Amino acid sequence: MPGPLCSNEVGEDWVDPGTLALTRNRPPTTHGMNSCQDYPPSPLTQQVFLSPALRETVQIATNMTTPMAWDSYWRMAYDRADKVLQAQANELLRRGNITRQEFDELVKARNKLVQEFRKPLSPFGKQYSEILKPTARLPQPGELLTKKGSIEAVLKSVGKSRASVNRLSMVFRVAGPALLALDITITTIVVMKAPSEQRGRMAAREYTGLGLGVAGGAGGAWAGCVTLAALGSPTLVLPLVGEVAEGTLCVVGGILGGLGVGWMGREAGKATGEVVYDFVTTFRWE
After folding, report:
1. Phi, psi dihedrals of residue 6, rounded to the nearest 5°
2. In terms of Cα–Cα distance, which of 191, 208, 183 is closest to 265?
3. What is the residue extent of each domain of the chain?
4. What pTM was computed for the model?
5. Is the N-terminal amide bond of 134 cis, ω within 30° of 0?
């Protein structure tokens, strides 16, 4: 005969002896709570973290922002080095008697600074920087002197960087690490909530997906930048619509490409993690 609700479950908290029930029952629970659900219920924070909408949103955004956060930290270092260079220029201006050799060396040092700080950037960061200021066309001392009209005019702005790029890098510098930390937290909760016998497989799936998602986001950001920026200039070096407009196209394309390719990389990573885990755990030497 069928028994009351949940009477087919086994647990340590069943009420049996001394009751009028003909079958085993759980003790009473809080009003409105289903006695079949896990007790105590999962914290609200975990419920939010594990919701599909939040998980997908965080994961997709992380794929794109994490690689760009790397570039933004190098941008911050470059900006600080620029300030040191400007301080040197200001000291020369206060002294008043600037020699042509000192002027030339300061401009060359600035160009060298640009070249060195581009080396560790991601493919997207390098492409974006090349669009705004091509390495092959960095202004030489004579060109700057002709353009500005005097040594003093050049030295007043020798250490200045683009304010718009600094603001954009600040956004990614804050959002990138925060989203990555949240993504790792959510991924860890998902792994820990899995049944014990599936936890290893789930860990391989989720963490491999996270890694390949970030890698896909880096590649997708570069591809999106190149694709959309090419609409403004087929050469990507001599902007037909202006370097600012082409740079904007690069950023928009980088965001879209990073989101799309990053998502595909994460899904591929999940599948790959499962396959590798199954192979490693079932492989046997004959």
Report:
1. 75, 5
2. 208
3. 54-278
4. 0.73
5. no
